[in-house]
Design brief:
The chain has 7 helices and 7 strands, in the order βαβαβαβαβαβααβ. It is of the alpha/beta class and about 250 residues long. It has a single domain, classed as 3-Layer(aba) Sandwich (Rossmann fold). Bound molecules: NADPH dihydro-nicotinamide-adenine-dinucleotide phosphate.
Length: about 250
């Protein structure tokens, strides 16, 4: 296991904002090397600039513009990460979204986009990274949710996608546990732009304050570090964190 490797190589999706950006900044500040991907190049480059300004030791962030649904581009990004840093120790398929709506008023496109990005995007990332994780005896960090274990009103399909992610992490642990560690982080509300994907004005008004008062994304990033550093005698298989007001 790589518990003692000081500078780890991390492949991270959804690095342009919110939780992904916080993970990138924190890992680079701790001396880790990050390949961060997302679609919005300007935001991604701004995150890398900030992360690299706060780097310590070998810490460094490089970027690649990728849509997680483009399997060929995703594979190229993983290859680019290996070319840059030599290997992959940790894969974090963080890119995801939730569009909340009562189930009978939902737009089918929103359902399919959530399934695509939150499930297929994770699978595409896992498939591209897995040979490298096996080679490095690496770590797969899933970004699940409290919605991985519970179902909440107006977000059934989002909850279904996050249940799938938890199942996938568990499957990986069962099939390959001796070679690749798997941690699923299950946060409650985090203060990011996440809720702004919801277009139902009534739901947006209702939910926005809870996300605004949610945990800072850096708290999720700290759990990633915990998963990376906590290996050795065993693995951290799942972590649930919640805002302190619920
Ligand atoms: P943000 O909206 O701030 O970030 C979402 C990230 O996903 C962006 O970097 C975005 O990049 C990326 N993304 C979305 N679609 C694609 C795509 N097709 N291809 C590549 N990248 C994509 O939200 P969060 O940071 O909050 O969300 C990150 C993860 O955390 C998600 O998986 C979410 O489900 C999970 N989560 C969030 C919680 C919260 O309360 N905020 C709670 C629990 C889990 P770009 O648009 O540039 O491509």
């Amino acid at each position: 296991m790589n518990a003692t490797r000081s500078s780890q190589v991390v492949f991270l999706t959804g690095a342009s904002s919110g939780i992904g950006a916080a993970i990138a900044r924190m890992l680079v500040a701790e001396g880790h090397r990050v390949m961060g991907t997302a679609r919005r190049q300007d935001l991604l480059e701004a995150v890398a600039e900030e992360a690299n300004a706060g780097a310590s030791g070998e810490g460094r962030m490089v970027t690649r513009v990728v849509d997680v649904l483009n399997a060929a581009s995703q594979r190229e990004a993983v290859d680019a990460c290996v070319a840059e840093f030599g290997h992959v120790d940790v894969a974090i398929p963080n890119a995801g979204l939730g569009v909340f709506s009562p189930i009978d008023k939902a737009d089918l496109t929103d359902w399919l986009t959530m399934v695509d990005v939150n499930v297929k995007g994770v699978l595409i990332t896992l498939h591209a990274c897995l040979p490298h994780l096996v080679a490095s005896k690496g770590l797969f960090v899933n970004i699940g949710s409290v919605a991985s274990r519970n179902v909440f009103p107006n977000s059934g399909v989002y909850c279904a996608t996050k249940h799938a992610v938890l199942a996938l992490g568990e499957a990986l642990r069962q099939d390959l546990g001796k070679q690749v560690a798997s941690t699923t982080i299950c946060p409650g509300a985090v203060n990011t732009a996440f809720i702004e994907q919801t277009r139902d004005a009534e739901l947006l008004d209702k939910y926005r304050p809870g996300f605004k008062d949610g945990m800072p994304p850096e708290f999720v990033a700290r759990q990633v570090l915990l998963a990376m550093e906590g290996r050795g005698d065993g693995i951290v298989s799942d972590i649930t964190i919640r805002p302190d007001f619920i």
